[in-house]
Amino acid sequence: MRIVVAGAAGFIGSHLCDRLLDEGHTVAALDNFLTGSAANLKHLEGNPRFRFFEQDITRPFPVDGAVDAVAHLASPASPKDYLEHPIETLEVGSVGTRNLLELALHKGARFLLTSTSECYGDPDVHPQVETYWGHVNPVGPRSCYDESKRFAEALTMAYHRKHGLRTNIARIFNTYGPRMKLDDGRVVPAFLDQALRGAPMTVFGTGAQTRSFCYVSDLVDGLYRLMQSDERYPVNLGNPAELTILQFAERIRCHTGSHSEIVFEVLPEDDPKRRCPDISKAHRVLGWQPRVSLDEGLAPTVEYFRSLAATAA
Ligand SMILES: NC(=O)c1ccc[n+]([C@@H]2O[C@H](COP(=O)([O-])OP(=O)(O)OC[C@H]3O[C@@H](n4cnc5c(N)ncnc54)[C@H](O)[C@@H]3O)[C@@H](O)[C@H]2O)c1
Fold it and tell me: 0.90 cut: is pTM over it?
């Protein structure tokens, strides 16, 4: 298959390109480097089944030749990035999604949207099931991301209902692994950066809020299975192993051998108190479940962040 991957130079997009190429597919990769990096795709240079096009998907763009599938991963994803680029975030979720849906329609291709657990907002249902409609502040600082993704989901369903487009929607929960940006503000790189520098590790609030972390190869496997399924409604993809932020900080200290102290700061506005996926649907319809434990996933991730630190030194 020839697959267009939008957001290919990002953390998850670059790993999806690797997986698609490993499976024997051909990839046309699009990215405008708003939050991604050419370094994430450097290892694919010279691969005859891979081509990169620097392209902002909110602007009109032609894609020559046959396309069998379109995977839409283009969007700032970390709070730091989308708070810095709120309008671009809304634009890529709305205009960008529409452009990619039109591309899929025009080419007779299928379409995958990577949505987010942020669609559930600060949930009052726990763990979050796909049938829960969410508890989202439409005008809060994070609304540029949450509502962009909720709109993208609605638009995707509209193309499916109106045009019969073969669509899939993944609601991704916190994912981590090599190629995350050191300074993206998300908890995994933030803690790793602080721990590796021996700097104080910042925990917001009391650290009692929970998160669950999915290793990137597991997530990409879920996306790959979803792209081949007929499931039109959203499917949660994430790791349900839940731990508090404080417990997570301690795990990072242990993995890095760091003696960083833990310091507490005020919880940011709209920060979800609990975040844990119900993945029974993914298990039922895709036969998918995460296989990589937190300790197994942290080992290569710590190695990657150590190598970044060594290159910077
Ligand atoms: N990483 C996670 O834990 C997580 C969780 C939930 C959802 N997601 C979703 O998964 C997708 C990938 O996330 P990520 O963590 O790899 O983020 P990322 O920021 O590393 O990658 C996103 C990529 O999209 C590109 N991009 C942004 N706007 C663009 C535009 N207008 N045109 C072309 N390219 C554009 C960026 O340059 C970047 O390379 C996003 O849609 C995100 O919302 C990620």
Answer: yes
